[in-house]
Amino acid sequence: MRESKAFSQSEQSAGSPVEGEPVFLVIGKLRRPHGVKGEILMDILTDFPERVRQGLMVYVGQDHSPLRIRSRRTHQKAFLIAFRGYDSLEEVGELRNQMVYVRAEDRPPLPEGEFYHHQIIGLRVVSETGVVLGKVVEILETGANDVYVVRPEQGPEILLPVIDPVILDVDLAGGEIHVHLLPGLIPGE
Fold this sequence. Notes:
By secondary structure, the protein is mainly β.
């Protein structure tokens, strides 16, 4: 599971004091103003859109400016959002193309065995024979299952499908993912 769309390690800019655990998580991207009452179109980038509601405190832009949602309504596959203190087309237009975040500590808990993408990025991947394969640098969403992109110290990247026969254990405290390598998963082997 994820709170926000997958971003590679180099694309993450959450400003976290702890590697792999951002302070803020992306939930949307503001696009363009809509109408004359201070609404702006927001692309939804969260698995929990029901949490985006009136009164929610969000953080906008790279400086994470706190704003409270005044109203929210569905518009096609996006939301029309209005923020307190932004009552006109011109005012809300200043927020165009900004990312919308929530604090990581406010994220909802996941069921046992499910993880947010930001918890997985950066973990070391170890085979069941104890061979360190590299670190997870990206997560691809394929529809059927996610795929972990593992970058070794040398050689080509390894693509690991997130399926039970491959992913044996995720040890967040230890910073490792233990895997079983099915034939063909290691390039050239």
